[in-house]
Amino acid sequence: MWGIELRDKSEISLARQIFLTLKQRILAGQIAQGEALPSTRELAKGVGVSRNTVSEAYDMLWTEGFIVSRQGAPSRVAEGLQITSGNAAPNPERTKEPTPILWDFKTGQPDLSLFPRQLWSQMIGQAASHLSVRQLAYSSPRGYWPLCEEIAHWLLRSRSMEVDPEDIFITSGATQALHLLVDLLYREGHAFALESPSHQGIRTVIGDRGYPLHWMPVDNQGADISTLRDQNVAAVYVTPSHQFPLGGILPAGRRAALIRLAMANDFYVIEDDYDSEFRYAVAPVSPIYSMDSSRVIYVGTFSKTLFPALRLGFAILPKPLQARWKHHRMYMDVQNPILEQIALAEFLNKRKMDKHVQRMRRVYGEKRNVLLRSVERSFGSSVQPWGDVSGLHVALQFPGMEFGESFIRACREAGIRIASVSQYCSIPGDHQDKLLVGYGHLSHGQIEKGIEALHEFIARGVEGS
Predict the structure, then answer these.
(1) Model pTM?
(2) Helix, strand or coil, per DSSP, at residue 390
(3) In order of start, what are the domains of the chain with their CATH numbers?
């Protein structure tokens, strides 16, 4: 009756099921405004429930304003409630099911199967069992103080960085840090300088706010700093230790020039230390922060090192920015979840991070070698790798070829997920001869078979052109 179908074993009460069904039909226009509802006795008999159950459902409708009632008259549907048409014709065009991804070369994906989950679970459990009443309350927008101290020790061990824990602020990954920094550093009439190509995340953060951008072309040594001269700059964002996506290392001369420009023109440098833990040929590259901490904001994350769902990162802030950062963070979300911060502090303190990074550096180094051998075996020596000495992806240059959006879509339809470097460029067509191949999350066999599949796909395209 009235389209009401009740489920006896549902966790939703029978009265609320009646209420929800009638509400939905009213909003869809299937029960017209002004239409009289059946009496509680009649509806109860029709759907096989007690009269009290129907009365409770009608009370819900009346309380929320879906029906109006007068003593001695039937309840009627209130005016002006229809939102959608109950008779709308179904869309004849059904969304096509996407082709399953067989070979996934997505970038930035760590190998989560090797993360020590049991150890992490134990540390989370210990953090929960020792949680004090005070730690259940709101804390400082700085973050958990022992974690700030452990991050400072970790940076000294891993990067030879001497950092005051007072300057470290915990974030929900690097993304939140960038959101906060863009708003903190913006000045009217001044542009944010970004590398081209660069990560879409920072471009989106700035672009969504409508702030102006200045592009710095990137070569195999990173950003061309000379383009900043005579520019009104709010801040410069760089990935100097492993440029994303081309992988170059910003040389000391360009770093020094960047710092001099920042000092002379009163702007800050945002240093995103992208994938610097995983360097395979030599020791990790020293950050720009080590050259001058007064003009550099260092941003780091544990998402790639440990696991993305952790959502913990940090920013090292010069003193003049700290009060405003605390204000913005206080009215954004105050703090990160405490259990994960406590567990991560313990993970760092017990040197479990050091052990995990050492292991993964070896694992990823082996995968990198498998990838490069597979590329040479399938494509020969004509295909040149960029940025192959660190990180979880490689840029492959195919001289004389062009990989546009249609190629990327065709790959996806063939079950291959891959990106072109041109997708990350400010000027359409730049670096169109390069593909990005992520390998951190893949097994040796998946890498080998995936490169073979990519070679066959490209060969078919060349033969059919």
Answers:
(1) 0.84
(2) strand
(3) 14-77 (1.10.10.10), 103-110+355-464 (3.90.1150.10), 116-351 (3.40.640.10)
